[in-house]
Amino acid sequence: MNRFAGLAAILCLVALPLRAQDTCDPKDAPPVPLCSVGGMLEAVNPPQAFDLLGNLNPSAFAGGANADLMPGQASLSIAGGVSAGGAACARHLSAKRIGGTEGVPGLDQGTIDFVEDMSGETLDVPTASGGTRRAVFEVFSPNLFSFQGGSLGRPLGFKHGGLGGWPINSGAHLVIALTDAGPGDLRAGQSYPARAVSSGGDGDPSTVFSSWTGEIRPRPYLPPKTENQRREQEFAKRMCRAVRQGALKTLELSTIPQDATIGRQVRDLNCDMDGVSQAGTRTLVPTGSLSGRVHIERITDTKVIGRFELSGTARVERERRTWNPRARNHVLIDSDEGEKPLQVSGRFAAPNMRNMGYAMGPLEVAQAPTDGSAPTDELLLIAHRPARDAKNLPWDDPGIRLIFDRPLDPASVTPAAIRLEFGLANGTGGTVMAPIKTRPRLSGSDTVIVTPQDPMRDGVRYRLTVRAGATGIRGAGGEEMAVDQVWGFDTMVDLSDDEFMQAGLAQHLAWREGVESDTIQVVTNAPLVRGKPAAIRVYPKWRADPQIAPGWQVTDFKADIRARPAFDPEAPLLVPEREGVQIRRPDLFSDEERRKGENSVMLFGWTPEFEEITALRTEIEPVRECQESPRVFSGVEPLEWDPLERDLEIGYVFARVGPWYDFVPQDVLYEAALTVRRSETYIEQLFPVQSVRFSEAPAPPPDPDLNETLVSAIEKIYQFELLAETFSDDTMDTLRAFNEYLATPPALAEKLSKRANVRSHLLNAVQDHLIANNSYDRYDLVVIFMPYEWIQLLGVTHSPAADQMDNPTKTAVQPFIGMSLTKSLTGVKRIANNGAITHEVGHAFGLNHVPSVPPQISKKTIADRHEGTRFPGIEGIRIAPDGRSGKIKSFEDGNAETKEELLTLMYPRTQPKENQFITRDHYLLLLKNLKKEFGALSP
User: Fold this and answer.
1) Cβ(886)–Cβ(535) under 8 Å?
2) Residue 359 and residue 326: Cα distance in Å, rounded?
3) Which CATH class is domain 381-491?
4) Cα–chain-centroid distance for residue 650?
5) What is the pLDDT of residues 802-858, one digit of tens each?
6) Cα–chain-centroid distance for residue 160?
7) Which residues neighbour 815 within 8 Å (Cβ) at sequence distance 6 or greater?
8) Strand duo 514-520 + 647-654: pairing
9) DSSP of 551-610, one letter per residue?
10) How confident is the model at residue 458 (pLDDT cuts 50, 70, 90)?
11) Partners of 653 in the beta sheet?
């Protein structure tokens, strides 16, 4: 916090004997299979995934007949114009019928037999027959869009952190048709020509790959330029609401068990928005011409095992999407598209059960004949570390360990059987996969330990592939895995780096990577005082790596965050630890998130004693599923202290004049009590004081002479104001001049008093009474409440000078505040809801208006000029009275309490409390002035 002497935050990396996180056994149960409904759900972005049929319910496919409808395992790799790959799913072997007799699309006799067996009834359904059938294999990255609908759908429907080794938020789908062989022609050991086709089994493929990185925001309608546009927008909103209501009704009536994700798109649909926008990158392979061969290795009564290699050209579309500064949450798109070479390869174990198959129409479920050989066991990878999608692994030792279901052939444990890689940026928005050399070795008979031989990077997504087939790891008896096993993991971000960075950081922060904190009681970068709640605002700082492709960079991770006195690793924590906080890279926060302070981590609950510590250390410990060696990053913040000890005692009285002459109404008493309670809190939140207490002072008795004088003056002013509404400005100038002439002796008429003069007369009279009765000295300040409906002025601070010449007994006294008491439902800003009293207390302690008001310019002109802006010099937190929460107030980031503006406490116009905050300069001035007598205040 203390940068007054030019000290930078001290950044360091420490390993401390902190509480251990859960340890993991490599033989722990693996996560849900990728090609189960639960696994495929992990790729889905529910708000962009429409589903009303209940197919997103994992429990419906957990067992029984439905479980057999699940796809088999596969792997898929894409290279050339796009680099991607990972674990995949393989749909049941199917066939495309060419010619012959048409039937119900996608329905064959085997499926009918299955339905008849389940229902106990005979079905008379026409099925296709005759013609020529071509075998079709379908391979796709784990996702429900491909499984349910036979295609990838929209890019924004995907949202995942690198499922199965794929780039984040990506999906791939490939349908392969053999050109001259049907399901019955397939034989183990044979190779067949093939090409990529559409989901219907012919034509060119559609949407082979899609991915996106960045951020999604709701997109508002643009302001209509014509009445017709306005009507069109209103019609679209009404139709959206009608469709949404109908869809919700359908969900309510559905008898299918509903999972939490079902219908979320409908439930969360905001019909007042035009849709959503995405900034970042987007890559699409919408179609292509790919051909090659499919190799069949084995055929059993449950699966067809093989591999494929296709190549050719494909259309690759890339977009760089940036937020449009002229239209909120709309994007500007820089596109690049063209034909690129593309190679796709992989392995599959396609289901071959026929009656339990599931194919997309118009394809038919098919079954290939078994190869007749004796059953051969498959080698299975039963456990591995790192786990699938593991986070925060050490970049210097990720601990790769593979455990198989049987002893292995040592000769097969070679570097060629293991592939470890990550994505480099190619300079044109694409990705080039970069391999890491590895050294695998046996540890025992069934376990392989893989040691990277090249340095690995921090904050990077890695993909690990354990190869199947003849070139992969084999069992001691020659058993092979059917398909490649592929998954990804993230190395932790190194927050001990100190490389230069600026994107996403506020001006007052050190523009270096690392951990930095601000300990704040009111404003940022100010000394602390005793006994006042403080917030510790923690900034984890790291930058994007231009060498790494966007989809392969770690942009967020979970961490435990704590604060303790510096230089003592065993010191108790200053505040409760925050566990499992999701930390994000600073440049990725939206304006709205920054406004709310979500670009930092807030620690509340510390109320320090004077010079309790000289420095504070904030610690960030990345959360790991399996914790062998905790790693903690930290930053040290020197603290500065101020010895100020100040409790403010403020009195208040009611001016018994005008409508309050006979008595003060009950509703006025209530409003005054509410106003002073809220003012106590607000002053404590903005001033460097320990406490503020308002109490009612002895009220002066009604003075009939004073009341008559002031009421008469107000009546004259009122009459003059009525004239102002009747006559022109020129006429009023003449009347004012004539009034000045009459008021000059020996005029016969007295000068009309202005309301401000009447107010001053009243306030001086009340103050004189307080002084005369010795009821003033016990207070630092006194607030004199006046009836607004009578005086029609708000607040003012008076600082009376000593009158030693005319009255030697009268001494200089504290300033006093005149405040008209406004109420709700009167059309005037309610004093209880705004910062008027706190503003006047600021004046009393030497704070001037900001912005300043030159004599020749009206306050209204100055205030109008800055209304709706964020004012420079404001940076801090409005901390709740209990010290457990707070609202960010920042010129750079915004005002967490309102989007409209952030004005100074000393703004020359009454404002709601939420719209104001004290500047750092004024806060530092208060630290000085609150130690002084009023007569010696700093200007």
Assistant:
1) yes
2) 48
3) mainly beta
4) 42
5) 444 444 444 445 788 888 888 765 667 788 889 999 999 999 999 999 998 887 787
6) 16
7) 781, 797, 798, 799, 800, 843, 844, 934
8) unpaired
9) GGB--EEEEEEEEEETT-TTSPPSSPPEEEEEEE-GGG--HHHHHTTTTSEEEEEE-PPT
10) very high
11) 784
- pLDDT 10s digits, 382-410: 999 999 999 999 999 899 999 999 999 99
Query: 793 and 755 in contact (C-beta within 8 Å)?
Result: yes
Residue 632 host element (H or E): strand 632-638
Q: Domain coordinates of the chain in residue numbers?
A: 10-20+495-623, 37-365, 381-491, 646-716+749-844, 849-939
- Sheet with strand 447-452: strands edge to edge: 381-385, 400-404, 447-452, 438-442
Helix pair angle (704-726, 755-772), 10° resolution: 160
List the single range of 90-94, 426-430, 896-900 with lowest mean pLDDT: 426-430
Nearest CA to 147 out of 62, 46, 36 is that of 36
Residue 635 reports pLDDT greater than 90: yes
Q: What is the pLDDT of residues 638-687, one digit of tens each?
A: 999 999 999 999 999 998 988 998 999 998 999 999 999 999 999 999 99
Q: For residue 99, give every residue at least 6 positions away whose Cβ sits within 8 Å of its Cβ, in sequence order, or none.
A: 130, 131, 132
DSSP H or E stretch at residue 866: helix 859-866
Give yes or no for a contact between 88 and 167, defined as CB atoms under 8 angstroms apart.
no
Tell me the C-alpha distance between 792 and 248, whole Å. 54
Helices 836-844 and 666-686, axial angle in degrees (round to 10) = 60
Angle subtended by helix axes 704-726 and 729-742, to nearest 10: 140
- What distances in angstroms separate CA 318 from CA 33, 145, 803, one per listed residue? 32, 22, 80
Question: What size, in residues, is the chain?
Answer: 939
pTM metric for this prediction = 0.81
Q: Are 791 and 808 in contact (CB under 8 A)?
A: no
Separation of alpha carbons 783 and 790, rounded Å: 18
Q: Which two tokens stand for residue 771?
A: 């002084």
User: Comparing C-alpha atoms, which of 626, 627, 578 is closest to residue 605?
Assistant: 578
| Residue whose pair of structure tokens reads 């903005």 in the numeric block | 686
Q: How far apart are CA 699 and CA 926, in angstroms?
A: 30
CA distance 91 to 358: 7
Q: Classify strands 84-90 and 578-584 as parallel, antiparallel or unpaired.
A: unpaired
Residue 672 to residue 661: CA distance in whole angstroms: 17
The pLDDT score that the predictor gives to residue 906 is: 94
SS percent in the chain: helix, strand, coil, step 5: 25, 35, 45
Whether the per-residue pLDDT at 588 is higher than 50: the answer is yes
Query: Is domain 646-716+749-844 given the CATH code 1.10.10 in the classification?
Result: no
pLDDT digits (tens, 9 = 90+) for 3-46: 333 333 333 333 333 333 345 565 555 566 888 888 888 898 87
Instruction: Pinpoint the alpha helices (H) of 61-205.
Output: 64-67, 109-119, 144-149
Q: Per DSSP, which regions of 429-484 are E strands?
A: 431-436, 438-442, 447-452, 461-466
Q: How far apart are CA 580 and CA 561, in angstroms?
A: 8
* C-alpha triplet 460, 342, 45: angle, nearest 5°: 50
Rounded to whole angstroms, the Cα distance separating 177 from 133 reads 10
CB atoms within 10 A of CB 380: 15
Q: Is the link from the previous residue into 851 a cis peptide, with omega within 30 of 0? A: yes
Quote the pLDDT of residue 5: 33
Tokens at 693, concatenated: 């207490």
Q: Is 670 left (phi over 0), alpha (psi -120 to 50) or beta?
A: alpha
Report the 10 Å Cβ neighbour count for 59.
Answer: 11
Maximum pairwise Cα distance, the chain: 131
| Residue (of 205, 185, 189) closest to 140 by Cα position | 205
